[in-house]
Amino acid sequence: MSRINGPVSQRFRAGMRTAMLCALAAITATGLGATGAPAAHADATGTPCLWAGNSHRQGQVVYAGGYAFSCHMDAFGNARWNKNGATAHHSTVSNPGAIGNPAGSFSPGAWQPGTSYNDYCSGNQLVDGSADIFSAVTDDTGMFLFWRSVGPISWWDFESGARPPATWRSSSLCRDGALT
């Protein structure tokens, strides 16, 4: 597909297609009598953010691993944590680590130290999941939540000098890039 000014990029076409689908969904929802809440309005009655299974109200600030996080609503009305920056404040929330799927326990934006749950193989070499900090993120559809590495574990402030346990796995469990 080309225009007077040259070819139209696939990214541009995909963006336009997404914008048209969003507009169609909004028109359809309005036509069916659906009402929407104002997006990105973080008030005390909004959807709570989850941290280690506990609910926190919109606008609330929690402290974990040497950082402050605040609960807000994203542009689509979903609860999420925003990292406000480093702080010397002690942790005010439980930090079990990135164990298991974060869905139902953490809202997007929450950080946790890595655990053996995050181990993976690169060829026949094991990469220790406890070497990184992980953030709860959504996939491109916004429907699925998973952990993504955001930095080295040295960024996390462990209280009382505690360190995360090293993985119990070894490279002997790696076969051609797959963890067995």
Please specify the SSE layout and strand pairing:
Layout: E1 2-3, E2 6-7, H1 10-31, E3 49-51, E4 54-56, E5 61-64, E6 67-73, E7 79-86, E8 111-113, E9 120-122, E10 125-127, E11 132-138, E12 145-152, E13 174-175, E14 178-179
Task: List key phrases describing it.
180 residues, mainly beta, three-stranded antiparallel β-sheet, globular
3D architecture notes:
The protein has 180 residues and is mostly beta strands. Helices cover 12% and strands 32% of the residues. It has a 3-stranded antiparallel β-sheet with strand order 5-6-7, with no helix packed on it. A 3-stranded antiparallel β-sheet has the order 8-11-12, with no helix packed on it. The chain has a two-stranded antiparallel sheet with strand order 1-2. A hairpin with a 2-residue loop joins β3 and β4.
- Summarize the main sheet: 3 strands, antiparallel
| Global shape | globular
Radius of gyration: 20 Å
- Please count the helical segments: 1
Helix content: 10-25%
Order of strands side by side in the largest beta sheet?
5-6-7
Order of helices and strands: EEHEEEEEEEEEEEE
| Spans of at least 5 consecutive residues with low confidence | 1-13, 20-44
Q: What is the beta-strand fraction?
A: 25-35%
Counted beta strands: 14
Mean pLDDT: 81
What structural class is derived from the secondary structure elements?
Answer: mainly beta
What is the straight-line distance between the termini?
A: 46 Å
